[in-house]
Amino acid sequence: MNSVQKPRFTYPKAAKLKSKSGIDRLFLEGKSLFVYPIRAVCIFHPKAAEEVSVKVGVSVSKRHFKRATDRNRIKRLLREAYRLNQGLVPEQKTHDLSCMLTFIGKEMPDFKTIFKNVGEILRQLNP
Questions:
Q1: What element of type H or E holds 42?
Q2: Domain extent at residue 45
Q3: Number of domains within the chain
Q4: Which residues, in sequence order, are CB contacts of 17 under 8 Å at separation 6+?
């Protein structure tokens, strides 16, 4: 058997940005990155005692997508694109990263576009 470890492409519950205070702080102090049709608001903050150093959330505007099924599909695409591209996030020893990926387009995207744009945003991240 080969003892080479494969990279783990997981997106566990602990890596999801869910706390209201964390999201509020993110939108107040974070910097915005934009690759159409995705806007990312990200903030680096001092290392915490948590086991996960990168927390990511996704959102889709109800204004452009009235149906919950459409919004949920786009959120699934965003989460999957992040999960596959998370190796592009720069490794930080002294900082944690919180990021919110927001889909701002007006038409239903395909996965290829989402994947490429999320990858581009993650490459732009530097503290």
A1: strand 38-46
A2: 15-124
A3: 1
A4: 23, 26, 55, 56, 57, 98, 99, 100
Domain containing 43 — which CATH number? 3.30.230.10
The alpha-helical segments, DSSP class H, found in the chain are 20-29, 68-85, 111-124
Whole-model pTM: value is: 0.88
Enter the tokens of residue 99.
């990021």
Q: Which of 82, 99, 80 is nearest to 33 (CA)?
A: 99
Q: Is 92 exposed, middle or buried (0-12, 13-18, 19+ CB in 10 A)?
A: middle
- pLDDT 10s digits, 31-87: 999 999 999 999 988 887 767 788 999 999 999 999 999 999 999 999 999 999 998
| C-alpha span between 126 and 43 (Å, rounded) | 10
Q: What is the largest CA-CA distance in the chain?
A: 53
Beta partners for 97? 44, 54
Question: Collapsing DSSP states into helix, strand and coil, what is residue 79?
Answer: helix
Q: Is 2 inside any structural domain?
A: no
